[in-house]
Write a structure and sequence with these properties.
- The chain is mainly β.
- The protein is built from 3 helices and 30 strands.
- It folds into 3 domains: about 10-15 and about 255-395, L,D-transpeptidase catalytic domain-like (Beta Barrel), CATH 2.40.440.10; about 30-150, Immunoglobulin-like (Sandwich), CATH 2.60.40.3780; about 150-255, Immunoglobulin-like (Sandwich), CATH 2.60.40.3710.
- Helix content is about 5%, strand content about 40%.
- It is elongated.
């Protein structure tokens, strides 16, 4: 639910910039060995009746990605490899006869599907092989991928190759409750060059889901190279199992730091420590005060509709603004910095908004062009500090308190 005391529209287009969901493993997280004529396809030790060592041993293949030798991970391309010899042909079909397209490697050592596997789906795998003596063998096996209700995953807020602002924490929101936060945290890591002191901190996201954020003790330095690692493959979480293995490299860009003084009604914007401009603004009026503390840019949109119904404002204070320009989102609850030409004459003089930071159209465009995802905007001399889970409010928590939020502290 959006904050009913302040802010503007936070519709589907204005959600925090993006959180990426990765269901499966990077490269080969594990394999499942399938013996010829195997009925369950999930136990590497099971062989066809009458099998023995040597030439009579049945043909076997392995499939990946998998968690722990029996659970095949869905939502990713499938790789098939022979345990001996070379593959000459592979078909993988569902019970309905739908086939996964794929191709053999030129040396016959692997087959990879061009489609991703489904969730909770049983597949029949038929492979033709040739052993080292040229003898042909056949393998027919079945395997079943994990269903969605057996998986826990986290969505994360950075993409590989991103350039982000100096205040962006790494944030992961999980789709299922995390019973053993310490076990999960041990499987997460953030490293950087240059190295910094940092810590994870658990919280509830605004929708009640378990969330963990990582922030350095101080803002990232411009140019810092950061790597997020997730290795949850096979990790048990009650009756659920983790399936993610990810490495995401991103870079910290230039330092763009903005400070809003609600008593002076100004916003000062500094780039790499040098003040560029001090802009007159109009912030939240009494009863709709702009959040105090540091918020972090979540997204930018050139034009949106702002309707007070979306934040529970009705009656005399109601508004419906059909085309608001140069919108920089600061919180999911609906705080933006944006053009507010209807407040012309109030900038630098009167705080008259419903919680947003209003600027002239020209100043809003200038600000819009200079800030990006992860840049901090700090409001001083206002009331009610923005909550840690309302966007990225990590910087409003003292360092010692932040460290205590780690499950390993």
């Amino acid at each position: 639910m959006l904050d009913s005391r302040r802010g503007h529209l936070d519709d589907a287009r204005q959600r925090p910039r993006r959180r990426r969901l990765g269901f499966a493993a990077l490269a080969l997280a594990g394999v499942v060995t399938l013996a010829a004529c195997s009925q369950d396809g999930g136990d590497a030790s099971k062989e066809s009746p009458g099998a023995d060592s040597g030439k009579n041993r049945p043909a076997t293949v392995t499939v990946s990605p998998a968690t722990d030798g029996k659970d095949v991970i869905p939502g990713e391309p499938l790789t098939v490899k022979p345990d001996d010899g070379k593959l000459t042909s592979v078909t993988v079909t569902t019970r309905n006869g739908e086939a996964l397209d794929g191709s053999l490697s030129s040396d016959g050592t692997s087959w990879t599907s061009s489609d991703s596997t489904g969730y909770g789906t049983t597949y029949t795998l038929k492979a033709q092989l040739a052993d080292s003596d040229g003898k042909k063998k056949a393998s027919t096996s079945t395997f079943t991928t994990l269903s969605k209700d057996k998986i826990f995953v986290g969505t994360y807020n950075v993409d590989k190759g991103d350039t982000v602002g100096v205040a962006l924490p790494v944030s992961i929101v999980f789709n299922k409750p995390i019973r053993d936060k310490a076990a999960v945290e041990r499987k997460l890591g953030v490293t950087s060059s240059p190295a910094v002191e940092g810590a994870w901190h658990w919280m509830k996201d605004r929708d009640g889901k378990d969330r963990v954020d990582y922030r350095p003790k101080e803002y990232w330095k411009p140019g810092t190279e950061v790597k997020l690692r997730m290795d949850l493959v096979g990790l048990k979480n009650g009756d659920l199992v983790g399936t993610q293995k990810r490495e995401i490299d991103f870079t910290v860009g230039k330092s763009v730091v903005s400070t809003v003084d609600v008593t002076k009604k100004t916003m000062t914007v500094a780039e790499n420590g040098k003040v560029l401009r001090t802009l007159p603004v109009s912030t939240g009026k009494k009863g709709f005060e702009t959040w105090n503390g540091t918020m972090v840019v979540l997204s930018k949109v050139p034009t949106i509709r702002m309707n007070s119904d979306t934040v529970g404002i009705f009656g005399e204070e109601a508004y419906d603004l059909g085309s608001v320009k140069w919108d920089v989102q600061l919180t999911p609850s609906g705080t933006f910095a944006h053009a507010a030409p209807w407040n012309e004459g109030n900038f630098g003089r009167v705080n008259s908004s419903h919680g947003c930071i209003g600027l002239s159209t020209a100043d809003a465009k200038w600000f819009y062009d200079r800030v990006d995802y992860g840049d901090p905007v700090t409001v001083v001399k206002s009331t009610d500090t923005v909550q840690v889970n309302n966007g990225y409010g990590a910087w409003n928590v003292g360092w010692e308190e932040w460290e205590k939020g780690s499950a390993l502290s």
